[in-house]
Amino acid sequence: LMNSQMKNHTRDKSFHCDICGKAFSLRVNLNGHIKNHTGEKNFRCGQCGKAFSLKGTLKKHMKIHTGEKNVHCALCGKAFSRKGTLNSHMKIHTGEKSFCCDVCGKSFSLKSNFNKHVNLHTGEKCSWCDPCGKTFTSMAQLNHHMRIHTVQKPFGCGICGTSFSSKQGIKTHMKIHTE
């Protein structure tokens, strides 16, 4: 296994993108990359309708709907759906802050938090909902919003069983049981 991994790292990158010059060791990776430039998106999510260039990206996206989180942090136990997200999370434990705001100098461990912060300065809304067109300043807000389209209600009442799409919904509901 180690030899095959080393071959991947030492393999010549002889397939070049004519548009941006990025190099790949496998033609299939170049072909997938080119779809980023052409905008071709042949893989559509059956739950929310979002389209993707690569089948693998659609599979990763589906974890939003299934809630699958099979990668865990060894330090705090938090679960993630992707290894890349875990790697970003680890910066919280190490204290590494690689992302610095040019406007105010504030620094961040996670690129996602940095991007959200920069959007506060610019007011830019970079995430949009394909089904309804609503825009959001973060992916977290979009993912939360998507529950209205996918009818996901992960917050269930332990007393009566009623389910809600948001924490605020369950909090408000719980008041009827305490009155």
Automatic annotation (TrEMBL):
InterPro entries, alphabetized: Zinc_finger, Znf_C2H2_sf, Znf_C2H2_type
GO molecular function: DNA binding; zinc ion binding
Record keywords: DNA-binding, Metal-binding, Nucleus, Repeat, Transcription, Transcription regulation, Zinc, Zinc-finger
Keyword field contains Transmembrane: no
GO BP terms: negative regulation of transcription by RNA polymerase II
Keyword Calcium assigned: no
Entry's localization field: Nucleus
Residues of the C2H2-type domain: 15-42, 43-70, 71-98, 99-126, 127-154, 155-179
GO cellular component: nucleus
Gene3D superfamilies attached to this UniProt entry: Classic Zinc Finger
PANTHER family, per the entry: GASTRULA ZINC FINGER PROTEIN XLCGF49.1-LIKE-RELATED, PR DOMAIN ZINC FINGER PROTEIN
Family: Belongs to the krueppel C2H2-type zinc-finger protein family.
Function: May be involved in transcriptional regulation.
Protein name, per record: Si:ch211-271g18.3
Species per Swiss-Prot/TrEMBL record: Nothobranchius rachovii
